[in-house]
Amino acid sequence: MIRTTGAARVIASRHYARLVSIPTTCHHPVTTPRVAHRWFSVSKGAASSLNSGLILSKKEEDFDHTSSNIWSSPDLIQDIENTTLIPDIVPEPTSINAILAGAHFLLEGIHSAGLPWWATIFSATFLLRTTITAPVAIYQQRAIGRMMTLTPVLQAWLETLKASVRIDHKIKGHDFSTYNSEIQKAYRAKVKELYSAHHCNPRVSFLLPWVQIPLFVAMSLTIRGMAGYPLPFLGDSSLPIEAGFIDGGVLWFTDLTAPDPTWIMPIAIGAANLLNVELNGMMLSKTPTRQQVIFRNVFRVLSISMIPIAHITPTAIGLYWLSSGCYSVAQNLAFRVPRVRQWLKLPALPKKIVGQQS
């Protein structure tokens, strides 16, 4: 559960008292079971259902794919760590209100320094990505690098294991399914042993999305509220527009509350997201697993689908999406430069990836 500071609780409680207290004939406030906010509204029941529905499913993957992609296989990592349930990560509505109030406070603080709103959104994106997600990405790259260095050792040990188990099962007359099951069992045990000895935690491979996605959603909801863009399914009917948003843009998008009629920004958002998908895909092995291929195609579709969505949203939101996407592109490209990796103390890239850069 996300913890909030005393100041954040005060901000959230003020919004709560102002928006959800309903006067009655007895002159006493009666609070409803829905927690409302200027930028966000969610029922407590909906939050509870989200908590109860976040469960990972177990699935055995093809053994050859698993052995060749040991450092990037979510299913093998799940078996190693014996993790079947995602922790309770969905915050309570009051915590969400505090987070959104904090994001709004940050934007107003940057804007008070004299920057126009378009530069404020860009600066806030750069600040948050640099101080929050970039350190997590660097830590993740180092952890993945340690696992990658163990891959040749595991593959060599796997061949020896196959030969040993094959001879043993021929003598005992076991079928192929039993033979394959024994190999997988022994292989997982060896992987767990090596990772433990070298202080490798496979779950770190999935750490960045759990940090980046909540940040992305929180900033999008905050800017959405500041632009006065209501969402009926969240209980919004109308929202006040932040002072200066109507003329706080630049170039062709001077009005940050209006969508971009030229399609320039929506197409740029889709292109940046698609480029990030391809750059991340280049980090995979030559023979990605079926699951990796599916995920990559899903993210390609999502990147393209962002174009029409960005076309109907205020340019203030689109500006945040575009600046965040461009930051990710720059970060992914920087991680592929040998000198940058050396400066950040990241392991050298495999020859396959280095060859793709030339």
UniProtKB/TrEMBL annotation:
<comment type="similarity">
    <text>Belongs to the OXA1/ALB3/YidC family.</text>
</comment>
<protein>
    <submittedName>
        <fullName>Cytochrome c oxidase assembly protein cox18, mitochondrial</fullName>
    </submittedName>
</protein>
<dbReference type="GO" id="GO:0033617">
    <property type="term" value="P:mitochondrial respiratory chain complex IV assembly"/>
</dbReference>
<dbReference type="GO" id="GO:0032977">
    <property type="term" value="F:membrane insertase activity"/>
</dbReference>
<feature type="transmembrane region" description="Helical">
    <location>
        <begin position="206"/>
        <end position="227"/>
    </location>
</feature>
<dbReference type="GO" id="GO:0032979">
    <property type="term" value="P:protein insertion into mitochondrial inner membrane from matrix"/>
</dbReference>
<feature type="domain" description="Membrane insertase YidC/Oxa/ALB C-terminal">
    <location>
        <begin position="117"/>
        <end position="334"/>
    </location>
</feature>
<dbReference type="Pfam" id="PF02096">
    <property type="entry name" value="60KD_IMP"/>
</dbReference>
<feature type="transmembrane region" description="Helical">
    <location>
        <begin position="115"/>
        <end position="139"/>
    </location>
</feature>
<dbReference type="GO" id="GO:0005743">
    <property type="term" value="C:mitochondrial inner membrane"/>
</dbReference>
<dbReference type="InterPro" id="IPR001708">
    <property type="entry name" value="YidC/ALB3/OXA1/COX18"/>
</dbReference>
<feature type="transmembrane region" description="Helical">
    <location>
        <begin position="261"/>
        <end position="277"/>
    </location>
</feature>
<feature type="transmembrane region" description="Helical">
    <location>
        <begin position="298"/>
        <end position="322"/>
    </location>
</feature>
<dbReference type="InterPro" id="IPR028055">
    <property type="entry name" value="YidC/Oxa/ALB_C"/>
</dbReference>
<keyword id="KW-1133">Transmembrane helix</keyword>
<keyword id="KW-0472">Membrane</keyword>
<keyword id="KW-0812">Transmembrane</keyword>
